[in-house]
Design goal:
By secondary structure, the chain is of the alpha/beta class. 62% of the residues lie in helices and 10% in strands.
């Protein structure tokens, strides 16, 4: 009985130590989440303005053509995958990889991983990697996004490595909802949609130098860098929100476990005291 009580007591101390860690991680994640969400909200207008500019250029020029708005001959997809740098975030990383596997199921593809978990996933699955130079999501800066955008634009324009580019990331919907999604980046056929040519002619009052196509092609890397940076901010906010929820759940479970173990300990202690009293009373009666 004493051995059993000692084991329960050690178990309680172990769970209490774990609960202190999960509680601390929950507080840290909550602090980082506020900054990450603010960063995500601040960068979103930049991407939206870039996207609107592309739409304006494409829709206001009837003779518009661009290498970025047509399919090339390479039947291969390049996925830019934004995953976390650490675990202990519930199903954040696993849900993202399931989303990637579901979309890439019937495609020949390669991956540009961003984040330590994405790099580890590609190595474990023996997936062809375009570059593993961007192994840390938390240290990604705007300059890195422009470097990635230039790399994939050059390869896409040369018709060498792949014919489509998709972005896999986790969209931050709310504190309790983070949704993995796949976003098609190139080519951009959806921008070339002219429904009313009279309306287009009426609105075609902006002159681009040297011409609209060159301006459009010059903006595309800026557009991709903006999309990638926005997705990085969204992914960071989603990771912290998922980690905060996971640590909150772990802390709650630890509290319930401690309560249950304390109940077992008190019952064992009561049984031990009752047994000792019974032995004393029995010994007294024998004397």
């Amino acid at each position: 009985m004493a051995t059993n009580m000692k084991a329960v007591k050690l178990r309680i101390k172990s769970v209490e130590s774990t609960m202190q860690i999960t509680k601390a991680m929950e507080l840290v994640a909550s602090s980082k989440l506020r900054k990450a969400k603010e960063r995500s909200d601040n960068c979103r207008p930049y991407f939206e303005r870039l996207y609107q500019t592309l739409c304006d250029i494409a829709n206001e020029n009837t003779d518009f053509t661009s290498i970025y708005s047509k399919e090339n001959e390479v039947d291969k997809v390049c996925y830019i995958v934004l995953a976390g740098d650490r675990g202990l975030a519930g199903g954040y990383n696993s849900n993202l990889f399931k989303c990637l596997e579901s979309d890439a199921e019937r495609h020949d593809y390669m991956v540009l991983p961003i984040g330590k978990k994405a790099v580890e996933y590609c190595k474990r699955k023996n997936i062809e990697v375009l570059s593993d130079s961007f192994g840390s999501l938390g240290s990604m800066k705007v300059d890195d996004c422009f470097e990635i955008a230039k790399l994939i634009c050059d390869l896409f324009a040369d018709d060498e490595a792949f014919g489509r580019i998709k972005l896999v990331y986790t969209r931050f919907e709310s504190m309790l909802s983070q949704v993995p999604r796949v976003l098609s980046l190139l080519p951009l056929p959806e921008l070339i949609s002219i429904d009313d040519k009279d309306e287009v002619s009426r609105r075609n009052i902006i002159l681009y130098e040297p011409n609209a196509e060159e301006v459009f092609d010059a903006i595309i890397p800026e557009y991709l860098a903006g999309v990638i940076y926005g997705a990085v901010c969204d992914s960071l906010a989603s990771e912290q929100a998922a980690r905060r929820a996971a640590m909150e759940s772990a802390t709650s479970n630890a509290e319930e476990m401690i309560s249950t173990l304390n109940l077992h300990y008190n019952r064992a202690r009561q049984a031990s005291i009752t047994q000792e009293i019974t032995e004393i009373v029995g010994g007294a009666e024998g004397i």
